[in-house]
Design a protein that fits this description.
327 residues; alpha/beta; seven-stranded parallel sheet; 13 helices; binds NADP nicotinamide-adenine-dinucleotide phosphate
Length: 327
């Protein structure tokens, strides 16, 4: 019980990744202060309050990314701060308002609270490969992406259309966070996961798992896209390891496997031959190429990646169990 007697906090605790993080922190004996936007919404809190250890060691706080000082009472008395809260949607009508402002201002808001509180030893920020992949370097099967890659905001705007709001929000918020942490001497680590899948603890559907649900829910085609994929349990665990291992520093990219959608569909078909899966790609262009991602730093945190096949199976089982689809 490495966390016994220690207090940490998690922002956006009702989210997909954060719910797993809270579960694992409680299992390790930590006392967890958890922020949610609406503590009176049972959909956001019931699954957290039902976790083992929650009765004794979970404390809920109300906080909003856009309210200055909102996180002061949350981080007060904490040794570790896990900042996961950030809007995740790949479609936004006003990306600046819906995504970029809460991500950037919210991150600076949380870090501002951390800088005021002497108890805080380390901040672990949930960034994304979105803040890594969109440099001007090509991504092809022989290229290895690693932690030295930084997305270029100008390039994001040039090449990405609809989804650029989310990519930009993660790129700009990580950039602002590093600047702030260096200036104020905050010990910060970023976890940069790719598309996260695996079982859900929360009762609602989150954006990354929805990509898998869409495939099994009657889609006629699959997108011509290649993503890195990683399991939610590995990502949550990585956050804790990054806090607990004193020598850990900098960024950690987390990708179990890079795969085109056609590969995801093929694996799902092998796992579930009776599922109604799309046969065709959405366009006739060559498939978006794959690339490699270095796992060296990630493995230094002691993570042995859960295989993609296992994550996909557990995602489907979880979606069925929660009633998101039947068959
Ligand atoms: N899932 C992925 O594939 C993936 C990959 C890489 C990085 N990430 C990063 O991981 C983090 C968690 O993502 P997730 O997939 O777990 O998404 P999620 O389930 O949608 O969780 C996002 C959380 O952010 C909170 N939030 C959004 N706007 C807020 C605001 N204005 N004030 C306070 N809280 C706010 C949400 O609160 P409510 O519950 O109140 O809405 C929710 O708890 C994000 O930083 C995301 O960028 C996710």
């Amino acid at each position: 019980m490495s966390g016994a007697g220690k207090t940490v906090c998690v922002t956006g605790a009702s989210g997909y990744i954060a719910s797993w993080l809270v579960k694992l922190l409680l299992a390790k004996g930590y006392t967890v202060k958890a922020s949610v936007r609406d503590p009176n919404d049972p959909k956001k809190t019931e699954h957290l309050l039902a976790l083992d250890g929650a009765k004794e060691r979970l404390h809920l706080f109300k906080a909003n990314l856009l309210e200055e000082g909102s996180f002061d009472s949350l981080v007060d008395g904490c040794e570790g701060v896990f900042h996961t809260a950030s809007p995740v949607t790949f479609i936004a009508t006003d990306p600046q308002v819906e995504l970029i402002d809460p991500a950037v201002k919210g991150t600076l808001n949380v870090l501002g609270s951390c800088a005021k509180v002497p108890s805080v030893k380390r901040v672990v920020l949930t960034s994304s490969v979105a803040a890594v992949l969109y440099s001007r370097k090509p991504r092809t099967p022989d290229v290895v992406v690693d932690e030295t890659w930084f997305s270029d905001p100008k390039f994001c705007k040039e090449i990405l259309a609809q989804e650029s709001g989310y990519v930009l929000s993660k790129t700009l918020s990580e950039e602002a966070a590093w600047k702030f942490a260096k200036e104020k001497g905050v010990d910060m680590i970023t976890i940069n996961p790719s598309m996260v899948i695996g079982p859900l603890l929360q009762p609602t559907l989150n954006s990354s798992v929805k990509l898998i649900l869409d495939l099994v829910n009657g889609a006629q085609t699959f997108p011509n896209l290649t993503f890195g994929w990683v399991d939610v349990k590995d990502v949550a665990n990585a956050h804790i390891q990054a806090f607990e291992i004193p020598s850990a520093s900098g960024r950690f990219v987390f990708v179990s496997r890079v795969a085109h959608y056609s590969q995801i569909v093929k694996t799902l078909r092998e796992l579930y031959p009776t599922l109604n899966l799309p046969e065709k790609c959405a366009d006739d262009e060559p498939y978006m190429p794959t690339y490699q991602v270095s796992q060296e730093k990630a493995k230094s945190l002691g993570i042995n990646f859960i295989p993609l096949e296992v994550s996909l199976k557990e995602t489907i089982e979880s979606l069925k169990e929660k009633g998101f689809f039947s068959s």
